[in-house]
Amino acid sequence: MESVVSQLEGTLLKDSDAFSYFMLVAFEASGLVRFALLLALWPVIRLLDMVGMDDASLKLMIFVAVAGVPKSEIESVARAVLPKFYMDDLDMDKWKVFISYEKRIVVTKTPKIMVEMFVKEHLHADEVVGTQLSFNRFDLATGFLHADSTNTISQRVANLLNNGAPTLVMDQSHPPDLTGQNYEHQLLRPLPVIFHDGRLVKRPTPSTSLLILLWIPVGIVLAIIRIAIGSILPFWAIPYMSWLFGGKVIVKGKPPLPPSGGNAGVLFVCTHRTLMDPVVLSSVLLRKIPAVTYSISRLSEILSPIPTVRLTRTRHVDAEKIKRELSKGDLVVCPEGTTCREPFLLRFSALFAELTDRIVPVAMNYRVGFFHATTARGWKGLDPIFFFMNPRPVYEVTFLNQLPVEATCSSGKSPHDVANYVQRILAATLGFECTNFTRKDKYRVLAGNDGTVSPTFSLMDHMVKVVRTFIQ
Question: Residue 42: which domain range?
Fold first, then answer.
């Protein structure tokens, strides 16, 4: 059996420095204080690398990033946060060489718990050889490596190959020959990262991390101003004031006129990118349009400048609520049921197609610089605050034509056919890919087999727990 052994850092991943991934663990599993502490130690870490003390540098990064952090939190970050950033740094040419062998082993200097899921599930590796973190009896990381990690890499690889030699070794000193290759697995691709979590948009390299830390105080003030503007000013003034404070909304297509003469309202069917989708839509239409919601926090409802209609996920109850709201006027619904950050659309719930034929698809998309506006970990009440903390949040709103009668249930089409059709035309507008994944699939991927998402231990979330107690 032909086998390959490849280094992860600097080979399968373009960047040989693992510092930014430890910064991600520090921020997402622990909080801002540990994130800042690890960044402050970066000059020491870099100096150790320069004088050839790579082992001491690695141990220092590991200790600062994970000491005292629950094992479940490290696993959660490794499952829900790190794969996205690893995938962005993947060297596809070297991966194609790697995947062309039958037995595939990855060697990494990063603790195995951080990379194993990504390497096996996304890169199709068979085995991972890495250091092992030590945990105490309370399942808290000690910050030190397990004694078994003292075995040499070559010994552990030899054991996996039954004391045989690999056909190919790939590392920085043995780069693979990428010319004239006939790959046996040309049709095989890395498993894409569709669902991921965490607040940070960019991989926190030292310079990016410093910029984030310097921006956070400014961002908090800016978020407070932006939220206050949205809550106080009339809707016609919001676009002008948003531009003044760095926000931007790009509108394409022709929105329908508001209902008149006692006619039932239009149902705006939107893609779901962030919590702000219905709010941005209302600001574009210059009128407050109610939005149906499932699981937003009470604080988000309080801060929302538009009415919200909380659904129950009980089909007949929700159907009656939506019908009642449509009889009053326009309504916004996001049939994906949850947000997705990547260029994919989740499967649309067909309920909306059963309730009205006046359906206007709206393609929503957004761009942010520092922070994601939605998260499955931590407190969802911070979602709008993180969105408005970005320097220049940009939204794109594209109105499609109202569905013709022959494309609705009135012509005899099933609700599922209508929902799938709307999903396809919205995906085509955005250049996205349709999937059959649902909200349950998202949380199963992010949370693991038990389907529950553990709360994050970030400092910001701790700070708002007291406020949350009074709000609820």
Answer: 3-170
In terms of domains, do 46 and 141 share one?
yes
Domains of the chain: total: 2
Would you say 58 and 9 are in contact if contact means Cβ atoms under 8 Å apart? no
Residues 357 and 221 in one domain: yes
Decide if 168 contacts 181 (C-beta within 8 A). Answer: no
Q: What is the mean pLDDT of residues 226-242?
A: 79
**HEC profile for the chain?**
CCEEEEECECCCECCCCCHHHHHHHHHHHCCHHHHHHHHHCHHHHHHHHHCCCHHHHHHHHHHHHHCCCEHHHHHHHHHHCHHHHHHHCECHHHHHHHHCCCEEEEECCCCHHHHHHHHHHCCCCCEEECCCEEECCCCEEEEEECHHHHCCHHHHHHHHCCCCCCCEEEECCECCCCCCCCCCCCCCCCCCCCCCCCCECCCCCHHHHHHHHHHHHHHHHHHHHHHHHHHHCCHHHHHHHHHHCCCEEEEECCCCCCCCCCCCCCEEEECCCCCCHHHHHHHHHCCCCCEEECCCCHHHHHHCCCCEEECCCCHHHHHHHHHHHHHHCCEEECCCCCCCCCCEECCCCCHHHHHCCCEEEEEEEEECCCECCCCCCCCHHHHHHHHHCCCCCEEEEEECCCCCHHHCHHHCCCHHHHHHHHHHHHHHHHCCEECCCCHHHHHHHHHCCCCCCCCCCCHHHHHHHHHHHHHC
Cβ–Cβ < 8 Å for 380, 298: no
pLDDT band at 458 (very low <50, low <70, confident <90, very high): very low
26: domain CATH number is 3.40.50.1000
Confidence of residue 172 (pLDDT cuts 50, 70, 90): confident
Give dist(CA 276, CA 247) in Å, integer: 13
Residue 394 has pLDDT above 80, yes or no: yes
Neighbours of 64 (CB within 10 A): 21
Mean per-residue pLDDT over the chain, rounded: 87
Same structural domain for residues 160 and 245? no
For residue 201, being part of any structural domain is answered with no
Give the global pTM: 0.88
Within this chain, do residues 283 and 160 fall inside the same structural domain, yes or no? no
Mean pLDDT of 339-368: 94
Residue 305 lies in a domain: yes
Q: pLDDT digit string (tens) for 118-166? A: 999 999 999 999 899 999 999 999 999 986 654 677 888 888 888 788 9
- Pick from 138, 153, 170: which residue ends a domain? 170
